[in-house]
Amino acid sequence: MLGLLKGDTLFRLTQKIGSWFRSADVTACEVDYTVLTLEDAKSRETIRFDDSLSLINRDYHLSDDDVVFLDYIDNAAMSHTIYEAYGQLVDAVQEKYGKKLCIRSGYRTAEEQQSIVQTYPSDIAAAVGTSEHQTGLSLDVYIEGSVGGKINRSRAGRFVSTNGYEYGFIIRYPYGKKDITGITYEPWHIRYVGKPHAEIIYMNSLTLEEYITSFYKAGIFYEYGEYLISRQEKSETIMIPSGCESVLVSDDNTGYYFVTAKKERKT
Ligand SMILES: [Zn+2]
Question: What is the 3-state secondary structure (H, E, C) of the chain?
Fold first, then answer.
């Protein structure tokens, strides 16, 4: 019996039990905000735009005009959006476990995704235009000696699952959620969504599908720690909370913008 409870199985079990005891409370709140035109918002220095909360799946496809700015670590290509955060995750794994977190597959072009689709079944390889690898926001990672499904057999690999959120990463296709994501459990496929979203997703055991489309009521603001979050239907204007030190606007690819603002530190 104990023999069955080793490695990955035991990890999944402890993760499942852990999920009953952890949660992240996000609360609706009133905030002062200014309504800006998109053009105006794009011209402000304190407001950045990115695609870190873009939902890509069989229902929400990539658009042809998405351009990915690439950066490289060990010859693996990834979106510029995730470069810094991924480097921090690599450093943390190295520092804590003395192991190297490596990339098996990073950014892929449509042509590269097509050749993978021809090799693997559809619950493993996403169709062209529905793979996050084409955004450069996702990476298939491994720890030296623990590749693919074996990643959870290594403590360093399990750290990626349990602490990746501290660096803005989630396990995009969690165990037991294939009915929602369409993809079987992939402990090696990490996706950058940024802070504090990764933490809220992990603590509440959500899929990105649930988080993007149904976790928030659109058009209002929520508070989580030092962050303000709001999901707003795309239009000519956008509500930006006042008095924040930085604001990030992410197109979620479902017709909405996520506004994530970090409240100014009181000195
Ligand atoms: Zn992958």
Answer: CHHHHCHHHHHHHHHHHHHHHCCCCCEEECCCEEEEEHHHHHHCCCEEEECCCCCCCCCCCCCCCCCCCEEEECCEEEEHHHHHHHHHHHHHHHHHHCCCEEEEECCCCHHHHHHHHCCCCCCCCCCCCCCHHHCCCEEEEEECCECHHHHHHCHHHHHHHHHHHHHCEEECCCCCCHHHHCCCCCCCEEEECCCCHHHHHHHCCCCHHHHHHHCCCCCCEEEECCEEEEEEECCCEEEEECCEEEEEEEECCCCEEEEEEEECCCC
Domain 57-192: CATH architecture, name and number where available: 2-Layer Sandwich (3.30)
Boundaries of every domain in the chain: 21-53+218-267, 57-192
Output the six-digit token pair for 72.
């490289």
Q: Average pLDDT of the chain? A: 93
Per-residue pLDDT reduced to its tens digit, 46-70: 999 999 999 999 999 998 777 889 9
Of the candidates 166, 191, 266, the residue with the CA atom closest to the CA atom of residue 226: 266
Distance of CA 104 from the midpoint of ligand 1 (Å): 9
List, for residues 178-200, the tens digit of each pLDDT value. 999 999 999 999 999 999 999 99
Q: Which residues surround ligand 1, an ion (CB under 5 A)?
A: 140, 189
* d(CA 229, ligand 1 centre) in Å: 28
Identify the CA nearest to 24 among candidates 191, 230, 242, 224: 224
* pTM beyond 0.85, yes or no: yes
**Catalytic residue IDs:** 186
Residue 65 Cα to ligand 1 middle (Å): 22
CA–centroid distance, residue 131 to ligand 1 (Å): 8
